[in-house]
Design goal:
31% of the residues lie in helices and 19% in strands. By secondary structure, the protein is α/β, with parallel strands linked by helices. The chain has a domain at 79-191: 3-Layer(aba) Sandwich (Glutaredoxin). β6 and β7 (168-173) form a beta hairpin. The model is unreliable at 8-22 and 26-54 (pLDDT under 50). GO terms for molecular function: oxidoreductase activity.
């Protein structure tokens, strides 16, 4: 009987750690709202066996940002690009957005773009971004047909670091800091020289 309490505490701690590592994952099915941006036409989604994010070529993605501008990853060639999948309901996503915005402003060799992987109505997303402004462009992508250029996020936030040639250099699952991104950029830049 005295061994029961001593088992409960380690088991409780293990469960808490697993929940924290899981990041933000939405259990409910997405609502049927029309996103501000659909990365793919209404055609059938590409087969999941060979997503472009694992291919050897540069990532191709062209979307309309929430401010109406064009977000084209090809326009960022020659710079490192941070592609951050996030959602309005994801607290770790919201916590890292100000730091990503500061990184985008501070480092001329690093561009940040946000992909709102969210079923929020387009006008509600624009209103949300007025309350949580960032310096980088954000486009909304369909949860039903996410962009084929990347694997669908297993959890949020999910962040891809693209090298200056537009290829995936690193993927971060869960919150990421500017320091982690800068370490990956600096290591990648040193390896290329």
């Amino acid at each position: 009987m005295s061994s029961f309490p001593s088992r409960v505490l380690p088991l409780s701690l293990a469960c808490a750690v697993l929940l924290m590592l899981a990041g933000c994952q939405r259990a409910s099915a997405p609502a049927a709202s029309s996103p501000a941006v659909v990365a793919e036409p209404a055609a059938a989604p590409s087969p999941p066996a060979a997503p472009a994010a694992t291919a050897d070529g540069p990532i191709a993605l062209k979307l309309t940002a929430t401010d109406g501008s064009t977000l084209d990853l090809a326009a960022h060639r020659g710079r490192w690009v941070v592609v951050n999948f996030w959602a309005t309901w994801c607290h770790p996503c919201l916590a890292e957005m100000p730091a990503l915005s500061e990184l985008d402003q501070r480092r001329q060799d690093i561009d940040v773009v946000g992909l709102a992987f969210d079923d929020i109505a387009p006008d509600a997303l624009v209103a949300f971004l007025k309350q949580h402004p960032v310096a980088y462009p954000i486009a909304q992508v369909s949860m039903d047909h996410p962009p084929a250029a990347f694997e669908p996020p297993a959890g949020l936030p999910t962040t891809y670091l693209l090298d200056p040639q537009g290829k995936v250099a690193k993927r971060f699952l869960g919150p990421v800091t500017p320091q982690e991104i800068e370490q990956a950029v600096d290591a990648g830049a040193a390896a290329r020289s």
